[in-house]
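Researcher: Before we compare anything, I want clean individual predictions. No alignment, no superposition, just each chain on its own. First chain goes here; please echo the sequence and then give the structure tokens.
Model: Echoing the first chain and its structure:
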Amino acid sequence: MDFLFSKTIGILSGMLGFRSQRNKIILSNIANMDSPDYKPKDYVFKRDLSRAVADRGQLTLLKTDGKHLPADLNEISDDDFEVVETGKNVNMDTEMTHLAENHLRYNLTVEMLARKFKGLNTVLKETK
């Protein structure tokens, strides 16, 4: 069945989970905006991976230890993400921008997943 449901569906469903969790964190930031000493949080890849991507250098994927991050996107799980404090005060404009961006990306992922299933549906109908 793996040939029918390619890696794309796994990646897209993982992205839906990520976007959903990030939405909860952003809404928590907005809800706690007036709480004293509250620092906003974000849901991101663990620091090692985000730092490697931020460097924009060549990232050679060589897994020599079991503690290394996965080289295959299908191996990425909830354990590869973490909630981090951004270290700033809550800014309503910033949080609303993050919320809108996250919402658009969530909708894009849903649309891509729907198109994938529509394509599979078409293939199944044509083979009858």
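Researcher: Okay. Second chain, same rules.
Model: Second chain and its structure:
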Amino acid sequence: MSLTPRWIYAFIVACCCGLLGYALYTQYFEGLHPCPLCITQRAFFVLTALTALIALIVNPQQTGRYIASGLMLVSTIAGGSVAYRQVWLQGLPPDQVPACGPSLEYMFSNLPFGEAFSTLMLGDGNCAEIVWTLFGLSMPNWSMFAFIGLALAAIASALPMIKR
């Protein structure tokens, strides 16, 4: 069995589904409510998974592999940037943490889209709270590492040495 782009796409889809499944588990069974930055990271995992799923189904030639890889790379870099922002917020001294903002539902129903989107991307005091750790790292830390791994897999899927 050789490594092909389709195996890499399947791996990316499986990883994203596993990460999203665990996020939903912690939300609905462990009671951890996601902050705006967590929801944004989930959206980028979904976008990465959908791109990989389409590539898995289509099985593109070399140019299509570059396009799929580029799209996955953009979504993983964006998601990793959001995760990094949350890690940065969590590392701030308590007196420098921004105030907690309104709920996501309130923002999108009462604020103009641009302002709600900006608030969502910047995060608030809720995003600085650490409520879950594994080996001393918070969920945004693990999310950031996952985005890095997915970005490397996306790059590998476009390498010419990977057999079709």
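Researcher: What stands out in the second chain?
Model: The chain is about 70% helix and 0% strand. Additionally, The chain has one domain: 5-92+102-158.
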